[in-house]
Each structure stands twice: as structure tokens, then as C-alpha cells.
Amino acid sequence: MTEPAVTYHVPVLLHESIDGLAIKPDGIYVDVTFGGGGHSREILRRLGPNGHLFSFDQDADAEKNIVDDDRFTFVHSNFRWLANWMRYYDIEHIDGLLADLGVSSHHFDDAERGFSFRYDAPLDMRMNREGGKTAADIVNNDTQEQLADIFYLYGELRQSRQIASAIVKARTQKPILTTQDFLQVVDPLFRREKEKKDMARLFQALRIEVNHEMAALSEMLTSATKLLAEGGRLSVITYHSLEDRMVKNVMKTGNVNGKVEEDPVYGRKPSPYRLVNNKVIVPSAEEIERNPRSRSAKLRIAEKL
């Protein structure tokens, strides 16, 4: 296996998340968030000669980290198309799926991508730069109501309406095209003591909207539930309450809404999962010190019944 020349991304909760998969040497596994390949390499290390790993990533930059191994298949695609690609490769069931849902450190550190408010860069935020709306497209063209909904639903910002109003007013003077343009508009609306936290939430909200992250996560989790074989494991690392709630709902009820389904004959349907860890697993103090990005990480693991 070849190692990437530079550190693309430091994997979070590496051993805990892979241990949670309870890997069978000859099993079929999926890493839906390949990134720098750290989690994928650990899965391959534990697989035998007859096992196989499929790893997904929609970002072309991740292809630079592809693993040279006959047991490995890289899929350049959004993980929402998990079911389609498994059908393409004639895979009916998988033995485990890993998802590290956070944005990689590579994206935050690449000034040109516009994911961070630390740099002045084009307001892009697309994981897949081959198409789709940019953050600038949304900021300059969505209605005030649409923008307020994005900031409230995906950033949980109480001042979402004021932010949306300020943006709509500012863009009548000139387009908002860079992160610096955006910051100049919204910065006066944040209190100094909460500025960095609220700004992070604002950028998070835009990123989620640009990449349709919640819809993609919903589709992937639904597909994973159908694909996992009996005894297969789902190991998911989340970083904010919206995605964590969705993952928790799926593991407890089998659906992303958390609704307990009723069978007209037998009554309440049991969940298709057994929780492996009733309490979320969080990084150790040592890991947080080594990798501050892991601070908000939560790991949930479930087994298919």
C-alpha cells in the first residue's frame, strides 16, 4: 500500500471506529468518506486476502490518496449513490460501513476552496467542484426567506433573519463573491464573545446547503440499512447535532425521522439495529490535543439484526 506524500487529513477516532466494525477477514466493507485514506488503510490492514473494501469520495483531490491494493476499489462519487454503485459492482450485501461525516482538514486548510473564514477566497464550498451551485450562487440569488431558513435549520442561528436581511441589502450594492465580502456583511451581527463559534455555524450552514449534505446522508443511511448483512456493523462519526440526530434515529428506529413504525397486524416494528455502544464514544483528551478538529466528534455503532 502506498502512503500519501503529505498529510491530507488526520483520521478521527481511528481505532475506535474500526474496532466497532468487528471486521471479518473475508468480509466486504465500505468507507463512504475516503478523504486521506486513513480509515480505509486501517480497514485493509485488518482484512484478509479475500476481503474487499469500496471507498467513496466525490472530491477529485482525494484520488491522490488512492490505495494500491487489489482488495480496494475507489468510487469517485457522492455517497448518496451507495446503492447504485453496489448494484453496479454486483454487491448484494456488505459486512460493514464506516462514515466520518466531518469536513476534512484538507478542505479547511485549502484557502482556494472557501470552506474557512480564516482565508480570503472565492465563496465556493463545493465538495465536488465539477458542478452544482457555489456558496456565492446561493448568497447572491436565494431569497431572504430561503437564506434565513438555511441559517436557522443548518446553523441553528437565532439571528438568521437579521443575517439574511443584511445579505440581501448588501448584494444590491455589489455581488458577494469572496469569503471576505461575506464576512464584511455578517461580522457586525455577531457578538464578540461568540463570534468565532457563530461564524463557524454560519459557514457550516452554507456548506450543508451547497453540498445537500442532509439529503445525501439520509439517502446513504437508508441504503446502508438495506445493504448490511445480518450481523453487519454501521460505524458513524458525526460532528454536529443535525447529522448526529439523524444517525441516532436510524440506529434506534431504522429511519432518519426517528418514527417508530407500526405494523397493522403485529404492532410496533422493532428496529433493524442493535446498538453496540449505548453511550456515544468521544475522543480522548490526548487525541483532542493532537487533533483539535476531533473535539466535537461523536461515534455511534450499531449492528444489523
What would the keywords be for this entry?
globular; seven-stranded mixed beta sheet; two-stranded antiparallel ribbon; alpha/beta; disordered N terminus
Quick summary of this structure?
This protein has 305 residues and is an alpha/beta fold. The protein is built from twelve helices and nine strands.
The shape is globular
Instruction: Name the strands of the widest sheet in spatial order.
Output: 3-2-1-4-5-9-8
Protein structure class: alpha/beta
Computed CA radius of gyration, to the nearest angstrom: 20 Å
What is the residue-averaged pLDDT? 89
Oligomerization state: single chain
Largest sheet: 7 strands, mixed
Q: Stretches where pLDDT falls below 50 for ≥5 residues? A: 1-6
Strand content: 5-15%
Give, in order, the helices and strands.
HEHEEHEHHHHHHHEHEEEHE
Distance between the termini: 34 Å
Summarize the amount of helix as a percent range: 25-40%
Number of DSSP-assigned strands? 9
What is the number of helical segments per DSSP (H or I, 4+ residues)?
Answer: 12
